[in-house]
Predict the 3D structure of the following.
Amino acid sequence: MSDVKNLAGTDAIRKLKELAEGIDICMFCTHIDEVPLTTRPMSTQEVDEQGNIWFFSRVSSNKNQEIKQDDKVQLLYADIRNSHYLSVYGFADVLVDREKIRKLWDGVEKAWFTEGKDDPEITLIRIRTQEAYYWDTKDGAVISLIKMGVAAITGQEQDQGVEGILRP
């Protein structure tokens, strides 16, 4: 059984940052009220002090157009190796902020933006996190695996980790 530990404010932002930046790649979902929703992998650039999550995107991308139609998004993060999981709900904004682009630019983005940080195709997507839910281990993946084995052998429920709501 997992412990439930809901977090708010700076504690929630700290946990959000730890998980989102630690996992990095998420499935970025738009049209979340529709079936099927639209999803694609995206690399997290930053979780800022307010709990906003930042991504690079192209001006002409489908996701930018989808956000203009409906700004509700969901981000799904999974680190299976370490048993860390995060689901984020929020609202997206498409922005052009050259100072923020320069701050977040680390050079890897040149694969998508061949003209560098001043490429006219670069935009930023800011996710204003409304609420998130996380599942995490207390003791790390190896200890959690041992606890699952003990539970399977003994039939006794073992403490598996911690989960909860994050409200920045």
Remarks:
- The chain has four helices and ten strands.
